[in-house]
Design a protein that fits this description.
heterodimer, A: alpha/beta, Four Helix Bundle (Hemerythrin (Met), subunit A), Beta-Lactamase, 5 domains, 5-stranded mixed sheet, 20 helices, about 60% helix, B: alpha/beta, 5-stranded parallel sheet, 5 strands, about 40% helix, globular
Chain lengths: ~725, ~120
């Protein structure tokens, strides 16, 4: 009769408390009921005894009168005085009986007794007369008196009155018996009910206690099993496991840690985990770092990092450590705990190093013979070995071109390999788009000329700053331009155009080629992708260029794409994120009423800070060099200029003078570290970097612009 | 005349480089096959510039450069590295090693001497 589903703890406790209250309450009830019943039974017995006594006395009273009558008749008939025995003490006996009957009698009974006493007096008076008559020798009178029936009638009245009282007593007794029986049955029922209640309560309580105990035992067993299993997991994990407190002290460890680091558990528990690493972090730094670690599955959780492990003998080995905050109720109890799983990755590292070594060696080993072949062919073609016949020249030319292609192929394969293994290094920094495109233009000019294609570059009105690796982006753009040139018919133009697209700088490469065949579109960025097999021979490509280009773009958090060009041809575009302050400007670009402020400074950080400070008040064109500043001014909309005097190799002061002369009405603010140069006098405002805040600069510039506008109006 | 020393363990490449550099009539070229031979030749011949292959057995280019810099007489000898490990980041690390420049292999023999002149400027 176990509950089919587990009784909830609250319900269980409620029931138990109820049962424990019910049992004593029921017992108390039984006690009171029984005491009450005993009282009643006692009273019943008293009443019954009195009734019996009353009836007994009534019977005696009746017998007394009968005796008197018998004695008087006997005396009357015989004249023998010995018959008068019972008559002699009749009156005192009768009075004694009456006195007893009167005890505790109610008023009705008293009046009955009075009537009875009157009848008795009459009877005794008749008897006395009879006796007197006989004593006086008037035997006939006596007999006549008896015959008159007075005495008999009186006697009848006495008998009937006594019978009446007796009947009343009997009825009272019997009704007492009936009501007593009824109340006993009630008590019996109540007591039975209470006893049943007690029994049920006790049963429920026992059941609850039993199930609760069983559940607790099962839960305990389960916890034990779980703990054992977890300990087994913890202990048998191949990876080293550490349980750390908030300070990074080791609370627990598994045997793998001992194997890995050569310490026993006793040596490590209680010590800081830094003892296991070669690191320059202090304990405070390590603790601060730990505090940023989340639980697994969260952001910033399960931090995976590579550390150099330190064995007890001081030897180093490479490890990968995954660490996460322990997600449990323990945390509610105070400081967080952490679990670190440590993997010995020296094998993997060794394999990686071997692979790197191999790739490097292969590239070296392949390039060395290619250097010889390409070099020899180049020298022969260049006439270093004397003049060549036309046929020979053509054949050597083919060999030389294919040798170069092989070199490109090797370079591309190495690039792909590096990108895919995540080992390609990107040196992402603040850079401008214009120099990148100019370099590409220079590099591709000869190639374009060879294909009889014109190459034009169109730059944005003011410099675009992006975050990128100049070498990789040049590789990317060069690749797109090279593809465009290769696929353009002779006499056409390949246009390179830089624009802005949302928060990206967009570089478009437009050609008038035959377009991209439909069936080729979904694999155009794949490896060894070429529109048709003859393509590679004809164009000298490797089929890896676009694949590499896309990887490069994506490593910059950008992307690459293409579209059909109106009027024939294709437009490839690459989007690279703008540097932060330019992205800010773009975001406020919608507000065309904002004045344009030119900021010239050679320090990128200052440019970023100033551009951010102007957000919402002005649109800042941040430039790092005087030529860039000139091209930005050429656009003609600049409302104010902020200039740093110390620009590395360039002289900001000279530029400021030039600006003052060429654009006398342009508000000019010097924001610089020096204040002792002669040029400062011609500026509208001079703010020294160490003294003025960026907010001062914004306020000064904005008020100058407002004043100049008012003057103009 | 400018004395150019080319050091490489590959005889074919030594020969091609020598021919390529000699396309410049102002260049007088000699080659060495090992770092030790290069040190001897520098001592004896006193070149104006040394082109060193990076990967060579026994003594590689950077080690040879370090040996040269230890000697006061050659502290200012311009050194150019030639390497087949021509990844951009690798080229950058070589340029920090007190060399005036890096030339990637395979090089174009017809423009090799021009490049050397450019780097020396």
């Amino acid at each position: 009769m176990l509950p089919s589903r587990p009784v909830t703890p609250i319900l269980r406790h409620g029931l138990l408390v109820l049962a424990f209250f019910l049992v004593p309450l029921s017992l108390l009830g039984v006690h009171f009921l029984l005491v009450d019943e005993f009282d009643e039974v006692g009273q019943y017995r008293v009443t019954a005894e009195r009734t019996v006594e009353t009836r007994n006395q009534l019977a005696q009273l009746l017998a007394l009168h009968l005796d008197v009558e018998t004695a008087v008749r006997g005396y009357t008939l015989t004249g023998d005085a010995s018959f008068l025995g019972p008559y002699a003490d009749a009156i005192p006996r009768r009075d004694a009986q009456f006195a007893r009957l009167r005890e505790g009698a109610d008023s009705e009974r008293l009046s009955q007794l009075d009537r009875l006493l009157a009848l008795s007096d009459e009877k005794l008076a008749i008897a006395a007369q009879n006796v007197d008559d006989v004593r006086a020798g008037r035997g006939d009178d006596a007999r006549q008196l008896i015959a008159s029936g007075r005495g008999r009638r009186t006697m009848d009245a006495i008998r009937s009155l006594i019978a009446e009282i007796d009947a009343q007593e009997a009825a009272a007794l019997s009704s007492l018996t009936v009501s007593g029986a009824a109340s006993r049955r009630d008590v019996e029922r109540s007591v039975s009910l209470l006893l049943v209640g007690i029994a049920v309560s006790l049963a429920i309580a026992s059941l609850l206690i039993f199930t609760s105990t069983r559940q607790r035992r099962e839960a305990l067993e389960q916890v034990n099993r779980l703990a054992k299993r977890q300990k087994a997991m913890f202990d048998s994990a191949v990876d080293g496991m550490l349980w750390l407190d908030a300070r990074g002290d080791i609370l627990r460890m598994n045997p793998s840690i001992s194997r890995m680091f050569g310490y026993t558990e006793a040596e490590l528990v209680g010590r800081n985990n830094l003892v296991l690493m070669h690191t320059e972090y202090s304990q405070a730094e390590s603790q601060a770092w730990l505090a940023t670690v989340g639980t697994a599955g969260e952001n910033g959780a399960g931090r995976r990092q590579e550390f150099t492990g330190r064995r007890s003998d001081g030897a180093s080995f490479e490890t990968e450590v995954a660490i996460s905050r322990v997600a449990s109720r323990l945390e509610a109890e105070g400081e967080p705990h952490y679990v670190a799983s440590i993997r010995d990755i020296s094998h993997r590292k060794r394999a990686e190093r071997m692979k790197n070594e191999f790739v490097s060696t292969v590239s070296h080993e392949l390039r060395t013979p290619l250097t010889s072949i390409g070099g020899s062919l180049g020298l022969v073609l260049g006439g270093a070995a004397g003049p060549l016949e036309e046929k020979t020249r053509r054949l050597i030319g083919i060999a030389h071109a294919n040798c170069e292609r092989l070199i490109r192929l090797i370079n591309d394969i190495l690039d792909i390999e590096k990108i895919e293994s995540g080992r390609m290094e990107f040196d992402i920094r603040r850079m401008q788009v214009a120099p990148l495109l100019r370099r590409t233009e220079d590099a591709m000019a000869a190639f374009a000329q060879k294909h009889d294609v014109k190459l034009t570059v169109e730059l944005p009105p003011w410099p675009q700053c992006i975050m990128g690796d100049p070498d990789r982006l040049e590789q990317l753009v060069t690749n797109l331009v090279s593809n465009a040139i290769k696929h353009s018919p002779a006499g056409e133009t390949v246009e390179v155009v830089a624009t802005t697209h949302r928060r990206f700088a967009r570089i478009e490469v437009r050609d008038r080629g035959s377009g991209i065949p439909t069936e080729f579109r979904d694999r155009i960025f794949g490896k060894f992708a070429m529109a048709d097999a003859s393509d590679s021979r004809a164009k000298g490509g490797t089929g890896l260029g676009l694949s590499i280009s896309r990887e490069i773009a994506r490593h910059h958090d950008g992307d690459i794409g293409y579209a059909d060009r109106e009027g024939g041809g294709t437009v490839f575009h690459v989007d690279i994120p703008l540097a932060r302050e330019q992205a800010i400007n773009v975001s406020t670009e919608a507000d065309k009423s904002l004045p344009l402020v030119l900021h010239l400074d050679d320090d990128d950080d200052t440019l970023v800070v100033v551009a951010s400070a102007f957000a919402g008040k002005a649109k800042v064109v941040s430039v790092g060099s005087i030529p860039d500043a000139r091209s930005a001014l050429a656009d003609g909309e600049v409302a104010a200029a902020i200039i740093d005097l110390a620009l590395g190799e360039e002289d900001g002061g000279e530029f400021a003078i030039e600006l003052r002369n060429s654009m006398p009405r342009l508000p000019l603010v010097l924001f610089t570290a020096f204040d002792d140069t002669a040029e400062t006098s011609m500026a509208d405002r001079l703010l020294i970097k160490s003294r003025a805040s960026v907010d001062d600069l914004v306020e000064a510039t904005v008020s100058l612009i407002a004043r100049r506008r008012k003057e103009a109006a | 005349m400018m004395r150019v020393l080319y050091v490489d363990d590959e005889p074919d490449i030594r020969e091609i480089a020598e021919m390529a550099l000699e396309l410049d009539p102002q260049f007088e070229v000699r080659t060495a096959a090992t770092g030790i031979a290069a040190l001897e030749l520098i001592e004896e011949w006193k070149p104006d510039v040394a082109l060193l292959d990076v990967m060579m057995p026994q003594m590689d280019g950077p080690t040879l450069l370090a040996r040269l810099r230890e000697d006061e007489r050659y502290a200012d000898l311009p050194v150019i590295f030639v390497t087949a490990r021509a990844q951009p980041s690798e080229l950058q690390t070589f340029s920090t090693l007190d060399a005036v420049g890096v030339i990637a292999k395979p090089f174009d023999p017809m423009t090799l001497s021009e490049k050397v002149r450019e780097l020396l400027e």
